[in-house]
Amino acid sequence: MLAYQSIIAWIVVGGFAGWVAGLLVEGYGFGLIGNVVIGILGASLAGVLMSMLGFYTHSIIGNLSAATIGALLLLGLIGLVRRI
Questions:
Q1: Residue 36 in domain
Q2: What is the DSSP string of 3-40?
Q3: pTM as predicted
Q4: Most buried among 7, 32, 54, 68, by the most CB within 10 A?
Q5: pLDDT of 48-72, one tens digit each?
Q6: Does the residue 59 lie in any domain?
Q7: Which residues constitute the domain of residue 48?
């Protein structure tokens, strides 16, 4: 079971990553709140993918990088689905 501090940190890191991803991927954003939600979902996606690939991030920079990559992937996938 995750401690509530871990959940809060996960939400903060994911929110920041979503904000950064929204700045990097223009045209696919969902506004500030939407990008923060996408960032949180992207952070969880990145956490699962990174652990499946055998990569573990133990620093805040590593966690932010992984969460931002996950948010970028998720925003890209959503952008592709919206085009169809």
A1: no
A2: -HHHHHHHHHHHHHHHHHHHHHSTTS--HHHHHHHHHH
A3: 0.76
A4: 68
A5: 788 788 887 778 788 788 888 888 8
A6: yes
A7: 42-69
